[in-house]
Amino acid sequence: MWIIYVLLVLLASLWLYARLTCGRCVCPRDRVSGKTVVITGGNAGIGRCVSTELVRGGANLIIGCRNTAKAESLKLECAEKGFKGKIQVLHLDLQSFASVRKFAQEVIGISPSIDVLINNAALGVPEEIVKSEDNFEVTFQTNYLSPVLLTHLLLPIIKRDGGRIVNVSSIQHLMGSEVRLAKNKTCPRRIMCFGSFVYGDTKLAMNYWTRTLAQRLAGTGITVNCCHPGFVLTDIFSHSYGNIAHFSLRLLANIYAKTPEEGAQTIVHLVLSRNASIISGKYWSDCAEVRFPRRPLKKSTAAILWRNTMEQCGIEEDDRQREEMSGSR
């Protein structure tokens, strides 16, 4: 019987710890009033909560997602509540480079400039290896390659004075491997227990790309940061893991995990915080800058990762673009 009591105390302690250490953004929401924000996956889960917070504050929000019906329902919901901001919904499938390019063209047609780009949409840990129409593992393309391409396409209209790029990462980047990334070994032949490694690679790549992009954007007035929203119970679990692992994870999540509203706080903070307008290339958690959990890549490895990524995304950089990215204009 005492074992049951110990387990109950342990579970209660985990729940209390999760609640007490959950960071909350205290920035005035109206700081985003009148600003144009583009968010991927802003129709569900954490992204939906971020969208709600920003529209409440008066943002002009452009949501890119696959399930546009969910985004339209959010648009109606915000209008009924009398929120000051506006929502425009565009279709976006991050499993397709063609869709990413079409979405970027539509955004540019809608707005001559944007203040914030939030790369939020992601797939969870894959159960099997599936290739996209572009012949990439779909998780790697959705979580990393397509956000990189989208950022590159929208970069010309991101405001040079105070523009922000927010990349949503995960603590699970610790499962990623620099060696796999540098050697383009991010897609195993068999999934087995490697699903977590595939997902981890996507988030590790996003973290390293964030740091490199921040260095290249130095002096432009644009900041780029990545964040860990926390262990959040969202629909992403409905597409991840096998039966036993899935059940165990959901059980733990119901006790320990943050709510989507709590998970949205660090993302919202990076949009609103004045510190985030001068800090770039950093890793954030619970609304605070934290020490990057991994050592920086060697310059040679970072260069290889950047070059591989540009080639995979079909991005060609000329000397002029490199100079503009480094701020030497």
TrEMBL record:
Record-linked Pfam families: adh_short
Alphabetical list of Gene3D superfamilies matching this protein: NAD(P)-binding Rossmann-like Domain (3.40.50.720)
Record keywords, A-Z: Oxidoreductase, Signal
A single GO molecular function term of this UniProt record: oxidoreductase activity
Endpoints of the signal sequence: 1-23
Similarity annotation: Belongs to the short-chain dehydrogenases/reductases (SDR) family.
Protein name from the UniProt record: Retinol dehydrogenase 12
Species assigned in the record: Galendromus occidentalis (western predatory mite)
